[in-house]
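Next comes the chain:
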Amino acid sequence: MPPPSDIVKVAIEWPGANAQLIEIDQKKPLSSIIREVCDGWSLSGSEQFALRYADGPQLYITEQSRGEIKNGTILRLAISPTRAARQLLERIQSHGIDARLEALKELAKLSADPTFAAEFINMEGIGTLARLVESGTHFGEMLAFTLTAFLELMDHGIVSWDLLSLSFIKQIAGYVNQPMVDVSILQRSLAILESMVLNSHSLYQRVAQEITVGQLIAHLQVSNQEIQTYAIALINALFLKAPEDRRQEEHVNVMDLALTEMASTLAQKHLRSIILNHIIRGNRPIKAEMAHQLYVLQVLTFNLLEERMMTKMDPSDQTQRDIIFELRRIAFDGDSDPGGTEKRRAMYTKDYKMLGFTNHVNPAMDFTQTPPGMLALDNMLYLARLHQDTYIRIVLENSSREDKHECPFGRCAIELTRVLCEILQVGELPNEGCNDYHPMFFTHDRAWEEFFCICIQLLNKTWKEMRATAEDFNKVMQVVREQITRALAMKPASLDQLKSKLRGLNYSEILRLRQSERMSQDDFQSPPIIELRERIQPEILELIKQQRLNRLCEGSCFRKVGNRRRQEKFWFCRLSLNHKVLHYGDLDDPPQGEVPFEMLSDKIPVSDIKSVVMGKDCPHMKEKSALKQNKEVLELAFSILYDPDEALNFVAPNKYEYCVWIDGLSALLGREMSSDLTRSDLDTLISMEMKLRLLDLENIAIPEAPPPVPKEPSTYNFTYNYG
């Protein structure tokens, strides 16, 4: 008799018949099990049947996936994927409109199943769907289901996108370019074009020739945020795949530009203002997918700076040297130019020192390090030309200070540019799971340069507040980095709001914040306090453990990472209230409130969990593309490994949820909670508890007479000043 772990108890349904309650022996071939089920209902030809899940996505069960069947699962006997594919292929080519519509509707649903998709594709099904689209005879629901099925089938990656014809591309682009088209058709058409661009260089060229910026802008002005999201996703895809030499070109008529020039138009006022006014400042809250696409657009826009950031200055290039002369001329315009080469050279050396360059004789050498390369010089020139009064004030103000307290403008501007590039991750690919866009960068045509101008003034102000000298340069830059990072975390909606946030984060406030955050390490180092801390720690850890387990019982929503069309790809996981089972299942939309256990069709007994792995050790991180293996995604990935050699894979939406789940699973399995969040919570809660206990000690009234029974000296015989 096989061990219990090889037996799964399930219910199997068949239309018009009572369900069969059977025990599946996982060691027996699936075909034998299907034959027994068919015999129970007196059905012949068992090879024409298959088993599918009755709930959720209703996927076919194969020899490879049968291990995922759990006790209590409801299955359904259905016609085999081969037979279903053949029947649907015949029906979608039938002459009856109603029959064709029903067939396409069923096909759109089944195409998400990889087993069915492989069979349908082997029967040249994708070519049939493409011809239906090219014919131009399908409209409304019929066309929408056709495009849905096509996109689902292509998403399995079985067929190359390069096989699509120019006629098909033109037809799909035509739906996008039509002024009035059904929303569902427009959605799917935009998604298909995005997938074409991302999966094929040759198709990128063809799509870019068919779509212009002006045509996509119209879709950013609609009230449907889903359409807006798909439109920006297509813009991002075209931007990401644009050849480097086309990204930097300048064009005059923005609205008529083909999308091969997409990258060079993103800074144009019209497109930016449409995104700002119709999306960011629109009447609807920004959903997670829209926030992600705005973040991607922000990253790709800043990545246009990478070429200048990685370009060294050529000290022998007169054109580049003229820019430095321009900086000197604007700062010291009123100074007379002495005669004689030696006198002129001496005066220039003095001026370059006043401008704060490290190399006073040949300041071009200051721009030979990358990053920030020539980008720093671009920023300085923008400040000097567009904010001339500010530029002159900073330069002259520092040139009149004592030498030891002057803030070297040139050196500071170069280092600040490097710091800003690091903070905004210039040159890095977008992170698949990140939604961290900043609205203020969409409020100005030259947002990067204005951001620099605000930050260089902050640096000058902080230098004065710190009464810094040249030896303090690195300390000042650390403070300025912290000021900028903290201000950005507050998500200012405009550049003016950024200025306001930075005014509140002066040097004194940074010191106060640092002192407050270090309190637990700095204030409690005496032996009695350390002993008290050790006594308190176990009960605080137990509180944190219960909080983590409670959060797992509430559950969390996760995205299914890896599908280019991210909409409607969510799943939810939560722990049972008795801490014995993990329930999970797919969702159409992010949940609003609690998700009941009844909606989660799958489950894993906690007793089956063998271990939890993180980062690059996760099965789904070993298989993903380079884009999804970047550092941030790896830091949010974890997997639950359970019997028999199965894995439930996660990518947390943020670092907090990641730490909560890692801690909760560790507590569930009786292991140590060791995340950064636990350490931080432990320090904070212990400090609070110690303060309360110490305050209680200070408030105890000391009796005048000694107690009747002598006691041992108190361990906590000390004075603690809370002033």
